[in-house]
């Protein structure tokens, strides 16, 4: 059974004349008549009394009329809803980001971006760095947000994946505090210091290795825990389980509240860029508009 058959049925039930109904449906009378017969064959009983002119509905046709009307109405409304949904999906901007950025940076960044370009619909996926890159290259996301530092290879200088530098952050060492608000652990001590580490493969793991090496304190650090989620490391530090190197944006509030204390010096702390990448081969009007507006906000493009 086809939707057109139901629409033909409703047209004929309204006019009662095959020629007029066929003309209203913009098909030949022979094709129209054939489709009415196909519908009656599908239903299993005649729907029109052809012994009178204009034709009229049989009792079965009268019973079927409401079903046909409601079915056509529901299908038309469903089609319109799907069209609107498709349009909204086309306007949706897809992002993929590192876990740390998704929690500590993206909400405030979205607020700032919305303030100058207006509200927009977004969907975020949260992945590790390698999965973020894979999504960008595969074209399953419009944008990727990640950290960048010259000492840690991330994205190659490939013209297909341009970037905009949207912010700056620093990797700082922090400790929990004792009852007097003093740091539980210090880096200038002679003894060992419990250390909460990232996996060596992660970006922040490689960055913290650089910071530790620059500070010359690797021998005194004793790894007690490994966790590549910065928010989890922060919670562990607050509980006094060790020291950790965390993005400043992640610990800003905890430092202000006195839950954590900064124990690194400026020389060993590592500055990191936060960059927005895109795949130039995957383009849509909303993507181009967003990219242009973010780039026009005085951020560095490449």
Q: What do these coordinates show?
A:
β7 (about 195), α8 (about 205-215) and β8 form a beta-alpha-beta unit. The chain is α/β, with parallel strands linked by helices. The protein contains 11 helices and 12 strands. Strands 3, 4, 5, 6, 9, 10, 11 and 12 form an 8-stranded mixed sheet that branches. It is elongated, with a radius of gyration of 33 Å. The protein has 2 domains: about 5-90, Arc Repressor Mutant, subunit A (Orthogonal Bundle); about 95-295, D-Maltodextrin-Binding Protein, domain 2 (3-Layer(aba) Sandwich). The two termini are about 55 Å apart.
Compact description:
This protein has 302 residues and is an alpha/beta fold. It has eleven helices and twelve strands. The strands form three sheets. Strands 3, 4, 5, 6, 9, 10, 11 and 12 form an eight-stranded mixed beta sheet that branches.
